[in-house]
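Data availability (excerpt). The following record was deposited with the supplementary files.
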Amino acid sequence: MPHRDIAPAQPAGELRSRYLDAILNAVEESRRPATRRVYGSAWKRFRRWAEAEGLQPLPADPMTVAAYLTRRAEQGLSQSTLSLDRKAISHFHRTANLPTPTISEGVKLTLAGLRNQAARQGRAEPHQARGLTGERLAAIVRTAHRRRTGQTGRKESKAAALRRGDVDIAIATVMRDALLRRSEAAELRWGDVEFSADGSSLVTIRRSKTSHVSAVQYVGTDATAALRRIRPLNAHPDSRVFGLRSGRSISNRLGAMAREAGLGEGFSGHSPRVGMAQDLTAAGVGLAALMVAGRWRSERMPAHYARGEAARRGAVAKLHGEGSWAEKTHRRRQAG
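Predicted structure:
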């Protein structure tokens, strides 16, 4: 006879019907809105391709997934894009409570082979945005308030150039100091900024690409002054600091700043993080401290960003910094 305090087990079907909606909502909330949008776009591409080929996208056969990834590679897409495709396909299968075809050995081997092919063709290195270093930031600050001509051919007014330039400087300086990702910059609210008496400030990142746990980042006096210049009177805590609603808008804005400053192409929403990583490495900051500053979980990307500066601080650079081989030999003979 069962203990009186233990209720009879509920049938699995009844339990599922009671909690299914809540579970699905929780699963959906486990990923950031930007991630969900990216996965949704990747899934739509896969579904359209499968249907055009007369194949079933859900549930998909592993051979279908392998063929799709191979086709995407033939189109010249990067390994990171193929990885995203695989994750999106897996996500939608798991959400539908279906076995994911992406864990099959055939799909794994296909991806490994595509990576090897890309390596042989010299396409294995990840694309890196040009770093917004301190020197390049200075060029942006110098040119930020120049009047620009829009797509319609109309030149902005002096007042508009001043307002836009102030926001540009704030975006570039704050993103560098706080090593913000472009999505984090777009989501930053005035309630997340804490101004300090010494002229610096702290910004709280509520959620990030790699963590749902908030983080607090330091912002120096120059960037804080730029924030104060653009802060409206009686700013609402929930209003966006930079007034841009997406990471893409942040990226486009940074690219425009760089072009106006004469820095050329290749600058994006990743540039402030890359540039600060390069400057910190040049200043002697080690990889472990750099990972903490930028909230990187893996050493792969910060090491990649800073590899040029690390090489300039390496053993060979130090050897050459002491003078030529002939000069060092002469000094040693004199000392001997």
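Summary of structural features: Confidence is low (pLDDT under 50) at residues 1-11.
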